[in-house]
Amino acid sequence: MSAAPVILFPQPAQSLSDFRCRNRQRVRWSEVDLQKVVFNAHYLNYVDIGMSEYWRQLAVPYEEGTQRLGGELFLKATQIEYHASARLDDVIDIGIRVTRLGNTSVQFEAGIFCPDRLLVSASMVYVFADGAQRPVPLPDAYRQMVQRYEAGEEVVEVRTGSWNVLGQEAMRLRMQVFVREQGIPEEIEADEFDVTSLHAVAINGLGMCVATGRMLPSANQESRADVMRIGRMAVARPLRGTQLGRQVLDALVDAARRQGKRQVELHAQCTAENFYRRAGFTVVGERYEEAGIPHVSMTRDL
């Protein structure tokens, strides 16, 4: 049965503020002609950058997400209109939004601005198709994700709970990040503390865990009663920098606060030190190695 078309935005965008999905780029030397003006074909590259960002904004890693959807979006048609030119070293903003959901197709609108002046507007029609590139109906999960996102709603649900409830999805992500990506031995990654920890997961519209962490009492026996330890913080690689990790961290910190704890501590990989600093954590002691990776201890008073 064909789904009735859904019109999300009947009127063309007038400004960058009309787009929830935005991406900022600087014009590079390789993108301009002898007059230092962006060559017209590169605007389609900018639009494609915006399309990739749209998947990130939906909190969906593209490859794994399309596997769960059972198909991919294939570009069918593009219409582009040029209004003004971008030049070398200009900072441009790329806006992307879905304007129409058909039975098997999705229509996107793009706007490229510098700084607030509309340089290029474009319309793209994508068709959802299976592995043989045969058009098939858009999955309901995709429709719902897009409609929630364009309505300004949250794209993930952060849940806290036990290992029995959340462990399967959390471990899938942890294996991707810690074992396959960082090379940590599997026998170290999975330990006896999982079953007694409080876990937090961020679940996207496809039911995928895209960020996770856990909390348990401090290993320091003297402070065990009122200090909690956060660990196993992981975010899907394509989605880092999208605040998913912060949402999971905040959920665990809030849980410790509700339990009446006075402090939370963690062993941060040094590459993530600034992330935790922005969340109110401070460094305690010198750097050290853990599982072959440089770490630093950090704490936050509640």
Describe the structure.
A hairpin with a 4-residue loop joins strand 5 and strand 6. This protein is 26% helix and 35% strand. The chain has 302 residues and is of the alpha+beta class. The model has no long low-confidence stretch (mean pLDDT 94). The termini are far apart. The strands form two sheets. The protein has a seven-stranded mixed β-sheet with strand order 7-8-9-10-11-13-12, with helices on both faces. Strands 1, 2, 3, 4, 5 and 6 form a six-stranded antiparallel β-sheet that branches. It is globular and about 65 Å long.
Provide a compact summary of the structure.
The chain has 302 residues and is an alpha+beta fold.
What are the SSEs and their pairings?
Blueprint: E1 6-7, E2 21-26, H1 42-57, H2 62-69, E3 72-82, E4 91-101, E5 105-113, E6 118-129, H3 140-150, E7 157-161, H4 163-181, H5 186-189, E8 198-203, E9 209-217, E10 227-235, H6 244-258, E11 263-269, H7 273-278, E12 282-290, E13 293-301
Parallel strand pairs: 10-11
Antiparallel strand pairs: 1-4, 2-4, 3-6, 4-5, 5-6, 7-8, 8-9, 9-10, 11-13, 12-13
Give me some keywords for this one:
single chain, 302 residues, alpha+beta, seven-stranded mixed sheet, 7 helices, 13 strands, 26% helix
Q: What is the string of helix and strand elements?
A: EEHHEEEEHEHHEEEHEHEE
How would you state the average pLDDT, rounded? 94
Strand content: 25-35%
Largest sheet: 7 strands, mixed
| Parts with pLDDT < 50 across at least 5 consecutive residues | none
Q: Strand sequence of the main sheet, in spatial order?
A: 7-8-9-10-11-13-12
Helix content: 25-40%
Number of strand segments: 13
Structural class: alpha+beta
Q: Name the quaternary structure.
A: single chain
Helical run tally? 7
Distance between the termini: 54 Å
Q: Tell me the overall shape.
A: globular
**Cα radius of gyration in angstroms:** 23 Å
